[in-house]
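Q: My labmate handed me this sequence with no annotations at all. I'd like to see what the chain might look like in three dimensions before we decide whether it's worth expressing. Could you predict it?
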Amino acid sequence: MTDYTAPLADMRFALREIAGIAEIAALPGCEQASDDLVDAVLEEAGKLAGGVLAPLNRAGDEQGSRLENGVVRTPEGFKEAYRHYVEGGWNALPFAPEHGGQGLPIAVATAVAEMWNAANMSFALCPLLNVGAVEALTAHGSPEQQRLYLPKLISGEWTGTMNLTEPQAGSDVGALRTRAVREGEHYRIAGQKIFITYGEHDMAENIVHLVLARLPDAPPGTKGISLFLVPKFMVGTDGSLGQRNDVRCVSLEHKLGIHASPTCVLAYGDNGGAIGFLVGEENRGMECMFTMMNNARLNVGLQGVAIAERAYQQARDFARQRVQGRPVTAKAAGAYPIIHHPDVRRMLLLMRAQTEAMRALAYYAAGAIDRARHHPEDAARERQQRRVDLLIPAVKAWCTDLGVEIASLGVQVHGGMGFIEETGAAQHLRDARIAPIYEGTNGIQANDLVGRKLLRDRGAATGELIADMRATERALANKPGDDLAALAQPLAAALDAVEEATAWMVEHGESDPPRTLAGAVPYLKQLGTVAGGWLMAKSALAARRRLAAGAGDAQFLSAKIATAVFFAEHFLPQAPALLPAIRGGATVTGFDLELL
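A: Here is what I predict for the chain of 596 residues:
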């Protein structure tokens, strides 16, 4: 497996030209995010990712985490790496200073998190869930809960988990059976949870579980679910650790990938009931949990970006080194590195262009979160929040689907050697495959996009997005004779298609929900592809502007333009082609189940 080098130039470009980090730094509470500080943060994060985390990726995959007498042991080097991570203050990056955070924008933290996931996705899953726990307690925890738990969670000295899934209740969270019984100022929790990422491990001294459970008198379904804070070790009023709580890891899941990440089956209440504390109000746990899940969905989408970047780097480096055959473009006899073969170059460009588009979309969404939280004007915050709500399903689903496709292409570039574990290409594909599943399967993301986001406002937020995209299309079209004009026609056709699909969805959403939802996945793919193409076009415009001003590396900027043109030619034509599938719900819902 080759080394990982953080693509700092591309990250800086995406932060500045797509996320708009300079504009974000002018918002109240984001003033620290100067160019110099952001550059320094990215540089140091790249060193930790490439020098400490990436070398553990292969060994962690081979060793895996293991359960020994109720204690989970992470692979060699993980504890030490996590200590470096905590001591460097990395976990505190985006959180509020009043609880020990550094108060940097989400957009900057997103770029840094991409590095952790690209270097070592199994390791990065631990802080990913911790971020969600901090978000939930910040939004819904009591002042006392925030005082006791947030400083340690923000520093990373303690880690957090999210406990939803049970054997009989996967995506159908309303079917959960874990019980919570009132007992004075706390509750007794009993039940079993599965698929709990880092539910038990040896990297932190305490683990704070956020657990969904049902009270005895709760109404059925999701309306009767409450959220509870259940620490592994009880915490005294002075923050000191006390006795072990009644929660145990009873087994580890044996998974296709992310072997180093311990995915636990947790048993609550085998010895009288675990002590838990209500977060928020009784029977309103799903509202609290969605605070965690929306954050996690952005970061899971980012995993698709990260694993694609890692797979691309490895495939590119292999193609430069692997000598085989004489390409048709060769002027002299002899064998050449396979990167000279047109089809290998095509595959690498497919990987690179899609990865850059995914990165742009994830960073753009992160920047919208910063604006939704910090903009001084109510109307601007509301507009940005609409944009976030609309894009989060696309970031999560489109980016993770592409992460799998790009990792698979990485195997293909390696040829037979890609199917051999020693090269490491197969690990990227195995690790990537979970991302379209967890934090809500990608089909659920598509249903959320159509059923909640699109139909809730009858396409208003989507219309705002399309209007912004049209402005970029016009900017491209106003450059006759310019090579950027080649981007205008594909983008215009793609925008026509997404506009048509949106209108169709809105028209049929209420009258024929099954047919509409049957087209939700191709609609999400269409929206993600067009949004990615739009941001690639914005990147090309920014690169051309920098070239004209003589600002920046000319080779890098020229590559930005070429990659955007490639994306427009190879991917934007998919948008009109997806229209029949979007409208083809009648074929799906009318298909005889007995024939499946």
